[in-house]
Structure formats: C-alpha cells, structure tokens
Amino acid sequence: MNIATVLASKGVKVVTVQPEQTIREGLALLAEHNIGALVVVDETQKPVGIVSERDIVRALAKTETVFAWSVSRIMTKEVIIGAPQDDLAAVGYTMTERRIRHLPVMERGKLVGIVSIGDILKAQRDHYQGEVDTLQLQLLKSQP
Amino acid sequence: MTARPGTVDRPLRVAIVGAGPAGYYAADHLLRQEGLVIEVDMFDRLPTPYGLVRLGVAPDHQKIKSVTGIFDKVAANPRFRFYGGVEFGRDLTVDDLRRHYHQILYSTGAQTDRRMGIPGEDLRGSHPATEFVAWYNGHPDYRDYQFDLSHERAAIVGVGNVAVDVARILCRTPEELAKTDIADHALEALRQSRLQEVYLLGRRGPAQAAFTNPEIKELSELPGADLIVLPEEAELDALSRAALERSQDRATMKKVEILQEAARRAPTGKPRRLTLRFLVSPVEVMGDEAGQVVGLRLVRNQLYATETGALQAKPTNEFEELQVGLVFRSVGYQGVPLSGVPFNESWGVILNEKGRVLDPATRQPRVGEYTAGWIKRGPTGVIGTNKPDAAETVACMIEDAAQGRVREPAEPDAGAAQRLVRERQPHYVSYADWQKLDALEVARGRAGGRPRVKFTRVKEMMAALER
C-alpha cells in the first residue's frame, strides 16, 4: 500500500495559497474546503511551505493582528514531500515520529495531492480490517 | 414535491455495475439499511458472478473462494436481482441506468496489467500475467489464448500476489492441479509443460517484497519445485536493516527470516526450480529474428530512502542476462475507463471522493453516481479490504439519499428495468440461472474429486441453460 492508494479516492486536488496572501484568506480556504492545512506555493506552483490550523492558532494566542499577516510569516518552510509510490508504513512512521500531520505529494515536479496522518491511519485500519475479515473466513471454512 | 425514495411504495433503486467482491459488499451494506427500502440490481458483463473470486483467485486457493457463501446470502434477498451477461457501455449506457435508478454504483475493478515500458515487451512469449490468470481460471474472453509451455525457462516480473500465484501454478504438479477447479484447457496445457526453471523478479529487496508470509512459505513447500533464494540477495542492505530495527515490524522480520532460511537450504532435486530474485529490474525483453522471446536483460538495483523514509529502487550500471523463453509481467493492475464516467488518469481510477463520482470540471459530486473497490481506490488489499471500502461509499449514498440528493429517474420500477434488459440482452442470466450453472459445474467435478469443472465458453453456459 502506498500514497497513491490514499490519493485515489480523495478526488479534490490540493488547496494552495500564495506566500503573500493573508492569514484571513488562508483561514477562509481552510473553512471552505474543511481541511487542516494549506500548501504554500510560489508563482510556479512549487511548494515553498505549509501552513496549518495549528500554526495559525499558535500565532493567534499571542496577538490578534495575525489575521492581516502574510502566510509566509508563520508557515513552516522545511516541508517533507512525499511521492505516490512511497509505502504507507514508512510514511506513517516518519509522520508520527516527526509530528507531521500533513504531507504534500509531488510527482515529476508537480504537486499532485496532500495526505494527512488521519488518511494514512484510516487506510491502514481498513487494510488490517480487511485482512482480519478474510483470514477469519478462511479459518471458519477449515473447521470441520 | 414527491416523497423521498426509500419506502415500500417507492423503494430507492440502485444499480451496481460489476459483480465482484466490492459490488456484493456494497449490496450487502445497502440491503441492511434499517428504515430504508432499497432495491439492488447488479449487472455483470459475464454470465457468472463473483468477479475475481471466480476468475482471479488461484484454483489451488479454494478456501479463499468460500467468501462466495456470503455473496450468495446477499443475493438471496428478494430485493436483489442479478443480470449476468449484460455489458455496461454495450447493452446498457449511463443514460439507460439514469432512466431507471436513483443511484448507480460502479465496481468494475481493475482489468488490465500495467505495462513495463521497456523494449521488446510485445515479443511473442511476453504476456501480461493477468491474461494467464484469466486463462487458467476459465475466463470466457481468454478461452482461446495460447501460452507456449514448451520452453524450459520462464520469468515473472513482479513479486506481488498475482506474480506469486502464476509462479505457483507453473510449478504445481499435474496431480496437484487436477484436484482444483483450474480450467480443463489449462490443466491439459500445464500437463504438457516442459518448464524446469521459473524466476520471480523483485525490483526491491526481501524486506519490501509485497508477498505475504503464508504465500512465501507455500512456495518453499511445493512438492514439485525447490525454492531457490540467492544468499547474497537474502541479506538485508544497511537501509532496510535500519528501517526494520526502527519499525520492529514483526511480519517483515519473519519474512526476511523465511527467505534467509530458504537461501541456506540446498536444492533437493525436485523436478523444477523456482528462483526468487531481488533488486533486479528488466530493461529489455530480448528476442530472436523470428520475434520470439529469448531472454531478459536485467539491471541490478540499489535502494535509496526518499524524504518520507520509504525505500525505493534505483538502477545501478550492473547488468545481467537471463535466458528465458516465456515472460509474464505482473507489475500491477490498471483500471479501464468506463464510457461516460469521469476517470482519473493519474491513479487509473474513477474520479471520486470517498466513493462519490466527481465531475471533472467542477470537482463536485455527480448526483447519484458512486464507485467502490479497485476502480475507486486502485488495485490494493485483499478481498476483505473491499468491505470497509464499500461501507464508506454506501455511507455517502445513504447520506445523500437522506438529504434528497438522488437522481429522479423517469421509470424507477423494477419491471421497467427488467423489460429494458430483456430487450437489449434477451439471454441475460438471472441468479437462479447462475445457481443452475453452479450446480452443474459442481456435479461435473464430483467424479474427478474436484470442487467443480468450470464452463469456459458463454455458448456452453447458454446450452446448459437450454437457450
């Protein structure tokens, strides 16, 4: 199982924001799309950062002027990027260890999606559930 | 406004296209909804149901096929109908279904093999593994395919479960195969097989191989073939070792242990040898002047860690040649677009979000259209994985129905749908017809101590049904 499996039924492309857009605009996007993070891209659509609801909450706790700030002021600049063929087990491990909740995914230089730790846990849960189900069925069948 | 569908007088009518596991699990979830009266009509282009459970699961894995017992229980529900031998896109179009159903669910699976994208791929003797699988399982479309088993050496590219199935079937003795429900024509051809060497080629290392531990154990215990693993390839590289130490993943540790154990064992002189290779990728299928496969040129790979810590293969500049007359590629299934249904080319699936089919322009759900199974999420997981997958889609269907987001078909009644099907495909197969075929197949197998002897031509099935 890899990242492509998760992206396949996510449908919607990544919601992005430009570095100079305001946090208020960013919040509107988060609310509109019911998501937790935005990928920040430059004019060539290259990811230059990621901004999450957490980043915004953290800044807001200090000052309410945050709404007018540019996204680039609070975004995380060091972004780990995933590839569609990356195994979910490895990705899940890295995200958990490094406390990353959202992972932008790129293929051949293009942003193709974003996966959350929740997406990965759900995919893994469904996978294990399916396996248990199939194994139980076989065990029942082999009983006399 | 008319009342929302889902009552005894006005049932919610659902069409399911594709009678494989995902379709059945979706039907099951739909028919179990409390307080909603739902009717399900299931279509399949083949006269027989069960999809890959009948035509994909290997004949020597009968226990896995017992899941059909659950499917038959679903089909016994009076609000379920089966229309076999009715092809979407040929006999019925999206518009036909829209005329008769509030909701349509596509569960057509992933029907082709991905290509390797290397020279020589189409030489004589180079085949998609899925065609071989369909052939030995008696899929009517593959009944007249030919696989030249007079060669002594064959390679299978890939180490996923399809690749492992193909290797195992090639290495089984005729006596073993004769106890299964393998198609008679395949049994006959495999009886004449002169194969002595079978290679399974993995792109990455032992710790990344997709096969499961029971699968590899089964290969190591074949009565007719010795499993060969090269000791140097069974050893983990530094990256894999470090990743395994971090994750402490028991199943992978066990897998590596089984492989290293196999690498230490000396061959016992069984008639065939099954060699499992790691960290190699074919770069060319080599042929002779007549266009016949004579070998594979392989590049040795090494692993590298991506940003997320996943280990991927990249080619080195070390090459080797493997002399084989037969090549099966099994580097993944791919979904086939359905006429009139939005497709996501990137992932080879129907464009969808949690099973709701999306309009490509607006990215908003197309009212009343859904998908489940491999054509929704891509070809991963075991049969049971389709259960949570279908449940997710059905939850969307029920939520939409509750909010009135359903199609308003012109003729939402079972009789009208049946009349249309009869008009387009007079020889459609009902579930009762299928059960008759099923009983006949089982009866044909009894004398030989086999689970069944399959009908492998649609004509034979029709004759058996006296049509």
What does this structure look like?
The complex is a heterodimer of chains A (144) and B (467). With 144 residues, chain A is an alpha+beta fold. Chain A has a single domain (3-142), classed as CBS-domain. Chain A has helices spanning 3-8, 23-33, 53-60, 88-97, 117-142, and strands spanning 16-17, 37-41, 47-52, 102-107, 110-116. A 3-stranded mixed sheet of chain A has the order 1-2-3. A two-stranded antiparallel sheet of chain A has the order 4-5. In chain A, strand 1, helix 2 and strand 2 form a beta-alpha-beta unit. The radius of gyration of chain A is 19 Å and the shape is elongated. Chain A starts with a helix and ends with a helix. Chain B has 467 residues and is of the alpha/beta class. Helices cover 33% and strands 22% of the residues of chain B. The radius of gyration of chain B is 24 Å and the shape is globular. The two termini of chain B are 45 Å apart. The relative contact order of chain B is 0.18. The interface between A and B is large, with 41 and 43 residues.
